Amino acid sequence: MAKALMWFRQDLRITDNPALSAAVEMGELIPVYIHDTSLSQPNEPGSASKWWLHHALRDLAGKFNHKLIVKSGKPVEVLLALCEAHDVEFVVWNRMYEKWARQRDTQIKTVLKEQGIKVKSYNGSLLWEPMTVSKADGTPYKVYTPYYRKACLNQPSPRYPLAVPKYTIPSDIEQNAINSIDSLALLPSINWYDGFESHWSVTEEAAKTALQTFIEGAILNYEDDRNIPSLKACSRLSPYLHFGQISPNQIWYAVLDKFNGDMSDKGVDTYLSEIAWREFSYYLLYHFPEIQQVNFNAKFDNFAWQYDDAVFSAWTTGQTGVPIVDAGMRELWKTGYMHNRVRMIVASYLVKNLLIDWRKGERWFWDCLLDADTASNAASWQWVAGSGADAAPYFRIFNPVLQGEKFDKQGEYVKTYCPELVKLPQKYIHKPWEAPATVLSEAQITLGEDYPFPLVDLKQSRQRALDAFAAIKEA
Ligand SMILES: Cc1cc2nc3c(=O)[nH]c(=O)nc-3n(C[C@H](O)[C@H](O)[C@H](O)COP(=O)(O)OP(=O)(O)OC[C@H]3O[C@@H](n4cnc5c(N)ncnc54)[C@H](O)[C@@H]3O)c2cc1C
Predict the structure, then answer these.
(1) Does ipTM surpass 0.85 in this model?
(2) pLDDT under 70 in the chain at which residues?
(3) Does residue 234's CB lie within 6 angstroms of at least one atom of ligand 1?
(4) Is residue 359 in contact with ligand 1, taking CB distance under 6 Å?
């Protein structure tokens, strides 16, 4: 019987996996994961991602009775060796969209084909692949709304999710996956990740359960509640989506099937349009491959960023003296996740109030987020910075106090992650520096000791940012 090697990458699931289903049709299955040691920064996974990957691989290995072959090295060399050792006829994978991955995969395809091996790739992670969507004049969209509403929604319907295929793995494959995964040493050497385990279950089944729970409840209030960080109002599917433990197709059709294809409910429409923001991020990454490092809007190349180690460190450790910012940065550290509204607030504060280059923030998120994703992270940072495609204008500067008072009225979110402020009355929870001495004393807070004074004056730093922006606008 012919043998088909399935190269798993960011598609660590067995349901709705087009390459896996195709491999099973071709013959006996050889499931393989390769830890690509040729990657360097900025493409090498961050520390939090490696924690997730470790657990996701263990979950996947279990599905193959631990006969997942796990190797590390240069993929082309590993694949050639495996093809020879196991007499492989077909190699399949699901496509990735980063420039480095596309170049690597094209080269591998050529080398394998030269050896007489048949190679095929599939779409396993997007509803609409970037190369299939363009404006009437053939150029790529740069604005989200027409991209999604005009182009994507008028494309042929995305693939309906595939069932789990019935596979047979050759008997000579060893059940050695757990040892091989452990030997990749993915778990970070500094154990700051203990808290992750109480927040996340890293399995394909957990992704399905999270989706089901969300569409049975929170989706109907998503439009209003998604901005409130103290509520469980979002689906929290982002790390599963990044590692492909669930596909956007599974999400799309679970929602449509539940609501009989009706997208008119505000919650449903808004949720699906967030899934489409992920698609748009991949679209941008594909058509503008440098967005992780290069300003989409070249005017920002002359922006007068400022950098100060101590200031950046205060931001990363949640010690800026602005409670909603500090709560967000501490949520990230503790759980590997940060609520979307708060991501926007902390990013705006870094880039606009502290005038630190968005690329520094992007790198910190890359290392700490469990859902760190080249496309969504880079596109979102550029969006907040104002340098991106269809970005928030630079002059629209979030006031973190007003944002906190609007979206965390009672200060519940802040109190969860900044317990030293728990006794502060609601009136001052987002601006402790304005609290009278007696109030601070009753709340057992000494500013500068229990909680920092604000790093910068919000009004002055806002004006400084506007001046810096005016300078590049005029240039
Ligand atoms: C500065 C900044 C950095 C970010 N970095 C990342 C990142 O590295 N990885 C990542 O997946 N998301 C990133 N996001 C987008 C967004 O914050 C997360 O996708 C979202 O918070 C994940 O939580 P959820 O799954 O509960 O989202 P839900 O609200 O339930 O949304 C469902 C899904 O839609 C997608 N989505 C939602 N909002 C966005 C968005 N703005 N852009 C792209 N996709 C979106 C995600 O895949 C998400 O899982 C970033 C946002 C900002 C402002």
Answers:
(1) yes
(2) 475
(3) yes
(4) no
